[in-house]
Amino acid sequence: MQRFNHYQEEYYPSPLMHVWIEFKRSHIALAGFVILSIFIFIALFGDLIAPFDPSQQNTNAILLPPSWEPNGTIIHIFGTDSLGRDVFSRILYACQITFGVSILIVMVAAFVGVSLGVVAGLLSGLRSSIVNHLFDSIMAIPTLLIAIIIVAILGTGLSNAMLAITLALIPQFVHQTRTFVKTELQKDYVMLDKLDGASRRRIFFSSILPGMLELIVVQATLAISIAIIDISALGFLNLGATTGMTELGQMLSQSLDVAYVSPWLVTLPGLFIFLMVFSVNIVGEGLRSALRNRLKL
Amino acid sequence: MTPILQAENIEYTFKFRPSFFAAKSIFELGPLSFSLNTGETIAIIGNNGSGKSLIAKTLVGAIQPQKGQISLLGSNENHANKKTRTKTIRMIFQHNQSIMNPALSVGSMLHLPLNLNTSLGYSARRAKIEQTLLQVGLLPEHYHFYRDMMSDGQQQRVAIARALILDPKIVVADEPFAALDPSVRSQTVNLILKLQKELGLAFIFISHNMGIVRHISDKVIVMDKGKLVEHGNTQEVFKDPQHPVTKKLVDAHFNLVSKHFEST
């Protein structure tokens, strides 16, 4: 065969590269990505960069203001709390728990939810309909409420809270995946795959799964922000992380008593929760539009 | 000479409900028989809902007929055997948005049939794909393209490439020209005629376009309400239609053509 190439200078980026090229175009998304990478770094190495032990109490430095205040010190960048613990170190440890746990929860929920959704999508008739309506009704209840009910049954504690939020997040994944698989199976290219002699398994892995990526990414970012808020909320209500651990919501609730004397104890954890949810949402939105636009040049 | 594909008394019946409250209706296809020789082109024409697409699906094995037999390359086993059938008969669907998977590139889409039906290695598969893309009038560069980067005509060519990539002996096409604009349609028709000449394909196609039917087919099958009502050489059927449905279709075509010539 005569081998000719008309456009030598053109290169063909992989689908993943396409997404990155498209993602880079949006400056806001890129900024969100930087903030998110900082949080990921903190989640991985936060305990290494923390200057103090988060539970180390220092009675000589109680309620010190942050370093940018006139009477603050550079040793305690974010000041100290009512027991003299370094707020900066506590926030690093708290981010590690809040953010890390949220990511872990969503990974488990996405895996379980997508697998169940695929099974439900491949089922047909009455069984599929029952699964669908069941999850529809569960989805109408806010996840925090479901999580509180599950915690009320299982007892408080971080692991129970994690389990509760995971269980509460699964139905969304199931529902979305099921609807997607159902509509994809009707399409002509699935019939063509069948005529190529592909088994259902292969049709799923090589034809349907690549198209599902966008859906999973969008759903996962939504779920991560929900998980961050729920973990913090349960911590705030003293249903999640126990006193031995540091967690952003729990820090908020502990500093409420001294909120008028030292407002930064409430502001800083709140700001970090906000930044986390904000960056996750921005990156999710950026990824979603990048995935959608990558194929339309 | 034994025909390459022969259908004997195939029948297919299914019940459906036109709307939720309506009574169940029954659609019966057949019994119908016909045969196809190497290099021959058969056109299936008829009104909407006359069972044309069902025949196509039955021939490629997407639907199992309840009665009757289809023999391929002279034996029934060949059609019953999924592997042989897949390699010998390929189908082209009517052009629409869902014939190509938006998430896969043309290359990875064309790898699938080769992967499943041949023992070629990756580089051999890739060479075959590029050769097939050239054959249908695309470039090897289109290997990296996704659906949304291509025009309708190019997508149709990819669909043809997908059908041809296994070097089939028979191609069944369900309205391959319907959604294309006239110039692309003529290009596609010429492309298929060229490929037929080069590869000796037998071609079965469904069309509403009598002009194309008359132009490229050797034989015509006329369907009405699931029954085969007329069957014969294209020239004879167009010259002397017997059944009312055929008469209607042929007259409509000739009216249009003669009006066209009067006005110019």
SSE order of chain B: EEEHEHHEHHHEHEHEEHH
What is the CATH architecture annotation of chain B? 3-Layer(aba) Sandwich
Tell me the CATH superfamily of chain A. Answer: MetI-like
| Biggest interface and residues each | A-B, 29 and 37 residues
Number of continuous helical runs of chain A: 10
Strand count, sense and closure of the main sheet of chain A?
none
Structural notes for this entry:
The complex is a heterodimer of chains A (297) and B (264). Chain A is mainly alpha-helical. Chain A has one domain: MetI-like (MetI-like fold, Orthogonal Bundle), CATH 1.10.3720. Chain A contains ten helices and no strands. In chain A, α1 (15-24) packs across α10 and α2 (27-49) packs across α10. The relative contact order of chain A is 0.15. The mean pLDDT of chain A is 86. With 264 residues, chain B is an alpha/beta fold. Chain B has one domain (5-98, 168-263): P-loop containing nucleotide triphosphate hydrolases (Rossmann fold), CATH 3.40.50.300. Chain B is 42% helix and 24% strand. In chain B, the strands form two sheets. In chain B, strands 5-6-7-3-8-9 form a six-stranded mixed sheet, with helices on both faces. In chain B, β8 (219-224) and β9 form a beta hairpin. In chain B, α5 packs across α6. The longest helix of chain B is centred in the last third of the chain and has 20 residues, at 244-263. Chain B is globular. In chain B, 41% of the residues are buried. The interface between A and B is medium-sized, with 29 and 37 residues.
